[in-house]
Amino acid sequence: MSWTLLAGSLAGVLGLALVAKLLRLGGAELASEDEAMAIAEAERPGFVAVSAVLAEDRQSAVVTGTDGEQVRLRRHGAQFVAEHA
Amino acid sequence: MPDLPNPVDYAVPGFIALVLIEMLIARARDKRRYCPKDTLTSLMLGFGSTIAGALTAGAVYAMAVWVWGFRLLDIPYAWWAWPLCFVLDDLAYYVFHRSAHRVRWFWASHVIHHSSQHYNLSTALRQTWTGFFSMAFLFRLPLFLIGFPPAMVFFCAGVNLIYQFWIHTEVIGRCPRWFEAVMNTPSHHRVHHATNPRYLDKNYAGVFIVWDRMFGSFTPELDEDRPRYGLVKNLGRFNVLWAAFHEWIGIARDLWSAPWRAKAGYAFGPPGWSHDGSRDTSETIREKWAGRAQPTRHPGEGRDPPSSCSSEPSAVAA
Ligand SMILES: [Zn+2]
Ligand SMILES: [Zn+2]
């Protein structure tokens, strides 16, 4: 490993992230209540969704399960993660 | 002993060019395949991994030479030794990788590679920082003991790593049937990165998928169950240090708080193991999934499926 390789790699890292930004890649929104429920079920083993309420900007949602448990979906980059509501 | 170059060093420009091309394809087809913050995290993790690797390379090499001193055979740098070394090294990789998913100690080091919810070429560069600490080098020692020269083994290992780069993509669907039968492919490795219950802990192959077929860990990608990527419990933050160390921190916390009889289980049991059964393992997730009616909803439905690299439309036979 040389300093040239190290500097080149770091330049490559920052350059590629910048290109991703310039190409406006990423971003996400929940298409429907159904999608929110499907994501909540996939993110939480054993969770069975009954209903979902999307936020106005479709960047988050609260999903309610069969036993009344609530899961909050939050946008994380171009994907969603589930958290305890 | 010849002074062989590290093939990975020469591959870096190629990695950068291919990520760039894949980004352009993402812009045209589906912008959600890349996310700038995720890309930066992946690449910084790759960058950190090369530094960690360089810092420990000397010690690993010295250890390899020491073990090689006890070799059973004198394997020369002959034409036949190279492919043999490559295949056996790939088998050693399979054993390592399977352990990396079934033993929490090794998982703590490998989890970094699975920590992105994306699956693109930049994900391939998410490599471990703590491989040396986890003692992953143990898995290669049998090769030196057999008698393969350390320089030859490390060269093959580098080529193996380079091969694994191109399979981290959704751009390529299925490859020709004969290729899917023998080689690890984007389709097979998407399964490996997926958290869908049916795909958990499958397809550990490095280069040759035949190991999974031989040892019962193979599962084909199904068009009706599109892979969802990441961890069973996703990190939810773009923090390079957290991605690199979170599972080690988890082990330390559990070792501290667990009762004595359970401590070993938290370090060397399967990921998700707990003494009171309060956490999910791959097995419990699969049981819960099998126990319920077939899910009616599939996340990502309606989005473009990956295109095919051949005219072969069907999935590979299991
Ligand atoms: Zn893995
Ligand atoms: Zn991978």
From TrEMBL, chain A:
* Highest taxon above the source species: Bacteria
Name the chain's protein: Uncharacterized protein
Automatic annotation (TrEMBL), chain B:
Signal peptide positions are none
Coiled-coil features, chain-numbered ranges: none
Localization per record: Endomembrane system
Q: Does the keyword Plastid apply?
A: no
Report residue spans for region: Disordered. 271-318
Q: What is its main location?
A: membrane
Q: Which domain of life is it from?
A: Bacteria
Residue stretches of biased makeup (Polar residues): 307-318
One GO cellular component term, please give it.
endomembrane system
Specify the protein's topology with respect to the membrane.
Answer: Multi-pass membrane protein
Question: Which spans does this entry mark as compositional bias, Basic and acidic residues?
Answer: 276-290
Q: Does the keyword Flavoprotein apply?
A: no
Q: Which UniProt keywords apply?
A: Lipid metabolism, Membrane, Oxidoreductase, Transmembrane, Transmembrane helix
> Could you tell me which residue ranges the Fatty acid hydroxylase domain spans?
83-217
InterPro entries, per this entry?
Answer: Fatty_acid_hydroxylase, Sterol_desaturase/TMEM195
Which Pfam families does this entry report, sorted A to Z? Answer: FA_hydroxylase
Biological process terms in GO annotation: lipid biosynthetic process; membrane lipid metabolic process
A molecular function annotated in GO for this UniProt entry is: iron ion binding
Q: Where are the transmembrane segments?
A: 12-28, 40-67, 79-96, 143-166
The record's annotation in PANTHER family points to:
ALKYLGLYCEROL MONOOXYGENASE, STEROL DESATURASE-RELATED PROTEIN
Protein name (record):
Sterol desaturase family protein
Q: Which organism is this entry from?
A: Sphingomonas horti
